[in-house]
Inverse folding.
């Protein structure tokens, strides 16, 4: 199983055991173990013998009929991996707490190598205070009141509407460039996985798919009541989770799949991985690639 150190490009997270009675300082230090290198203006991501060009784009605000919250997306750093010239499908991929797009650029570059018709859009989360880390500011799609995250963990809903508006605006930009909404897949890891689930289930557009890696169902989004009437009830969902995850505890993955199925979602794949903590592994990456090749051929 591959686990990259958090200080190296391509690192996504580090596994750890967290005792809720430990000091606040330890919680802050552990949270910052998620931090990857910040996005540069441009670089190349090596994939085997090939290289995939990666650039940072600023979404344009032209012809956007969005509300004030979506205006924040005009300053969202966005890393592009894969086919930016003439893609026939788009994957919007979100990182986790304290990370950056570069933390997942190698993962997406590997997918782009086998699916050269796809463009991967990796937005960077806003910098927000995080309650469970004593209000320390870091890249974060939503506030977290506690870590580890259990299915019953509290959720104050802070920062989430603004983050969802950012992703909605990015999807709208891609549609405006000629990509049908059914050819847009939304996915992510940890916080990014929770974001992808809320984005797709709550979207009024029919989207191409949703990948939830080591994520959870945000209580404030009331996902169970939203699924039955969702425009994406028949959209393919992929749920992946490590069985040894002690950060977003392992019960969250099967619960997400159950919520979707109980709500009538017709296409839900659940994969769990023995021994995998809050991380990724080659088997998971292969599962994502196989699923993505089916939903965006």
């Amino acid at each position: 199983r591959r686990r990259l150190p958090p200080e190296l490009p391509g690192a996504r997270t580090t596994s750890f055991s967290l005792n809720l009675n430990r000091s606040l300082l330890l919680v802050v230090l552990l949270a910052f173990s998620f931090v990857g290198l910040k996005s540069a203006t441009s670089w190349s991501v090596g994939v085997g013998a090939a290289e995939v060009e990666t650039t940072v784009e600023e979404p344009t605000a032209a012809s956007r009929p969005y509300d004030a919250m979506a205006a924040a997306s005009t300053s969202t750093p966005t890393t592009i991996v894969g086919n930016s010239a003439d893609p026939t499908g788009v994957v919007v991929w979100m990182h986790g707490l304290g990370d950056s797009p570069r933390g997942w650029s190698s993962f997406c570059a590997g997918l782009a190598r086998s699916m050269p018709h796809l463009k991967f859009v990796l937005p960077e989360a806003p910098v927000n205070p995080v309650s469970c880390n004593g209000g320390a500011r870091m890249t974060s799609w939503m506030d977290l009141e506690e870590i580890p995250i259990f299915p019953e963990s509290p959720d104050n809903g802070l920062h989430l509407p603004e983050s969802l508006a950012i992703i909605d605006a990015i999807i709208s930009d891609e549609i405006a460039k000629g990509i049908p909404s059914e050819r847009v897949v939304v996915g992510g890891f940890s916080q990014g996985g929770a974001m992808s689930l809320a984005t797709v289930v709550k979207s009024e557009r029919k989207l191409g798919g949703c990948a939830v890696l080591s994520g959870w169902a945000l209580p404030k989004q009331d996902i169970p009541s939203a699924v039955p009437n969702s425009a994406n009830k028949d959209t393919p969902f992929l749920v992946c989770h490590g069985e040894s995850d002690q950060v977003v505890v392992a019960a969250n993955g099967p619960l997400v799949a159950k919520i979707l199925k109980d709500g009538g979602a017709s296409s839900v794949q659940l994969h769990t991985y023995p021994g995998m903590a809050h991380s990724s592994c080659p088997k998971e990456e292969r599962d994502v690639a196989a699923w993505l090749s089916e939903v965006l051929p």
Q: What stands out?
A: The chain has a mean pLDDT of 81. The radius of gyration is 17 Å. The first helix runs from residue 24 to 32.
